[in-house]
User: What shape does this take?
Amino acid sequence: MDTTIDSVCCLPVGSPDRIELDAVVGINEDIKEVMRIANGLNLAAINAMLIAKKIGDASSGFSVVSAELRTFSRRLSEVMSRLMELVSALVREVAGMIRLDKALSLQQATRAAATHYPHWEAMWRRKSGELARSGAAVLDCRANLTSALARADKLCVMGQSLSYSAKIESVYGGAQAGALKHVSEGVEASVREILSTLQKLAGQLETKR
Assistant: This one.
């Protein structure tokens, strides 16, 4: 059972906690979409290499670029997998922090009866400490995710340069020039879409600080 989804569903719609969790889960869905695009990019890079191999020496420049694109797509998939791990960790920490905050609120409501419960203060201090640590963990997760997004963005900028080079080299593909151009344009569009999504995610994390 997905405890993260359970946590979201149990919160009232429109509550600050629900909005917070919905935002983090939304980030997770965006990264899943980027993963899908990255997988398609890997297939496009393989296709480019096959076409270049079929042409032979006439497309030696494109062959080099397509091999670099394949390396780029593999690195991008690895980076996206790491982003997925970080977002999952963030969702867990946010859900845990919300549960602790609610537990403290419930305990606060019993403060008037604290004199009848000798361990009330000790429990309060323990839960307050747990909440503080949970809050610090959420901040750490956000910082790690922001850094990972910055690295992914930098990698995609490099991929964008490679896609431009591929488009230029496709001109020398002879009879296969059209196919090479089509592949290179597809790679360029995919990288552009990934960059746009990453920048949107970075902005969402920035507004949550």
